[in-house]
Amino acid sequence: MITTLLVANRGEIARRVLRTCRTLGISTVAVHSDADAGAPHVREADAAVHLPGTAPADTYLRSDLLIAAALGAGADAIHPGYGFLSENAAFARAVLDAGLTWVGPPPEAVEQMGSKIESKRLMADAGVPVLAELDPASITAADLPVLVKASAGGGGRGMRVVRSLDELASQMEGARSEAASAFGDGTVFCEPYLATGRHIEVQVMCDAHGTVWAVGERECSIQRRHQKIVEESPSPLVERVPGMRDELFAAARNAAKAIGYVGAGTVEFLADDDGRFYFLEMNTRLQVEHPVTECVTGLDLVGLQVGVAEGRPLPAGPPPSQGHAIEVRLYAEDPAADWRPHSGTLHRFEVPGVATEFSVPLGTGIRLDSGVVSGDVVSPHYDPMLAKVISLAPTRDVAARALAAALTRAKAHGVTTNRDLLVRVLTHPAFLAGDTDTAFFDRHGLDTLAAPLAAEETVQLSALAAALSAAAANRASARVQGRIPSGWRNVVAQPQRKRFTVGGTEHEVRYRLTRDGLDAEGLAGVRLVEVTPDTVVLDVTGLRRRFAVSSYPGLSCVDSPLGSVSLVPVERFADPATQVAAGSLLAPMPGTVVRVAAAVGDRVTSGQPLLWLEAMKMQHQVNAPADGVLTELGVAAGDQVEVGRVLAVVSREES
């Protein structure tokens, strides 16, 4: 039996494993980098071991440090979570060689499926349908588009869609670089790209006694950058196509049996609307989206992983699925800005109506699996996912409605998130009709789906609420005549003025507090009902609206049922030291410069790639903002940069 388990991971998956271990009475050990010293998973474990450094290559990807930590802490087992070393056969073998229990599949199975190239050949031999691999040297225009894909790892890293032969070499090089950084293996391959496929996967669970379960399927078709952001079970497509589920389950079981699989795994397929499907890969680990399967089956997949690792047999068959579960991944990123990740202090993080955390709700409810809590710092060194929010209900439409409502009322202050995009997806007629494929964003317009939930009037009302709240806070803290109403004048005077920026657009609030009440310019019919430093109640043409206002240094966050708005107060007198030259390219996030493609004096054109930044496990291209000459280049490959640093300056060429 396992008595003490080390979780070789971080964030929400580490907390998820810790929760099951507490239920099973197993002592736990966490590991943490410098950046994660105060993280929730560190506080919740029985013991924690420091891994010096911040980069994954120095910490969570160091198998020697992880095994030494387990032995030093007296652990007798290691759970790898997902990502990092979870699908590294050498790590699994080293864990076993150290006399520890590996809570995962046999290293041989990890090895066989660890290479997507070899695994597809193996599956073809086992009779599982596969997409053909393409030789990059022989790809012609007739083969386009193709998908360049990392052989190791997952999560959309090391993947590129190539639509032009001219791009093939550079896209393969970019994929190699990203894959090597994320997984320590830069091997990539090419296959046909199906732009409108359905991503369907089957959860398998196998014991050491020959029992192989196909627990249920999940549909994960809505993706960004080839990474899933909405997952659900059961699949709307599989529900619609007669016989498809039986065929999928049989293929998944055959795949597991072909490699003598033991433990939890996922067999992933790409399907068309007629129900034909092709093997993509097998993930020899727990999936990010495993909660949706847990919610519809009532199983604890982590608990089953531990039991199988201890040699316990599975029952003859899995329980039947009931109801419908939908999961969304809440990221610190801006979908409207090419999914740019954001880091910084998460001042406040709350999701209302949560029934359970890291466990299955009873019948209906919201589950939250989060790696962060209020006050945490979102680091630029790791994946920007904040949490997974899961809804369980008897039917799909009810699950979607409840999840959209919970996200709309959630508070995530301090970093930009994809929350509004997720709500728009969950409420979109095509999603509700089950018309979801991997081209969902292309078909329905990312610009439309990424638009803020808060309409222009909501932004104006929120700015007014922020201004009134700030004035109330000033009066509440005043040492002299604090009882006098904010902005009170003996005679008619100029209105109170306050300016904010919202998403780069400036908004000015102009209002008076008169004997007859609030007089706000541009907002006729708005009456002030109540104001405190953190709450403003407005009567808007007969409808009473409550705005919750949270103020932080340089930021005001206003939440209401109409949508959440983040406002940055504009200083009345700007500091000249903060001004930058026209044409300056500023670092949009902290990160590492991995490649520079231009030199000072070069003539560049609008949109031309100048350099690449690596942050949050992804590479981000920085392009020239306009035609001109590169007059300054303040960075070189390998440089670490902070957000806002001037990377380069493009000056317009004089005629």
The percentage of residues in β strands lies in 25-35%
Work out the helicity level.
25-40%
Class based on secondary structure composition and strand pairing: alpha+beta
Number of strands: 39
- Distance linking N and C termini: 78 Å
How would a textbook summarize the main sheet?
9 strands, mixed
Q: Total number of helical segments? A: 17
- How would you classify the quaternary structure? single chain
Determine the mean pLDDT.
92
**Side-by-side strand order of the widest sheet:** 13-12-9-10-11-14-22-20-19
Task: List low-pLDDT spans.
Answer: none
Characterize the structure shown.
It is a single chain. The chain has 655 residues and is α+β, with helices and mostly antiparallel strands. The protein is 26% helix and 32% strand. It contains 17 helices and 39 strands. Strands 13-12-9-10-11-14-22-20-19 form a 9-stranded mixed sheet. Strands 26-25-24-31-30-29-28-27 form an 8-stranded antiparallel sheet, covered by helices on one side. Strand 27 and strand 28 form a beta hairpin. The longest helix has 22 residues. It is globular, with a radius of gyration of 27 Å. The model has no long low-confidence stretch (mean pLDDT 92).
Which short descriptors sum up this protein?
single chain; 655 residues; alpha+beta
